[in-house]
User: Fold this.
Amino acid sequence: MKTSYTIGEFKAELPRVLDAVQQGGTISITYGRGRRPVAQIGPPAAQRKLRKLGSLCGRVKVHVAEDWKIDESTFLAG
Assistant:
């Protein structure tokens, strides 16, 4: 299977191109007489699992000193 298509070829071969992408391939789409690459189609990047919030609840204790003097806006500003 080809890895580079002009726009016209891409439109005509779309089902086959999608099959190739589903199998892990990456396809380049070119444009113009110089056939310069304008787009690339490939499988999506692996998605990260979402972490469950509160997973450390009850396992970690945080102590803040009484003389700690910083307001919330300064703390969040970094």
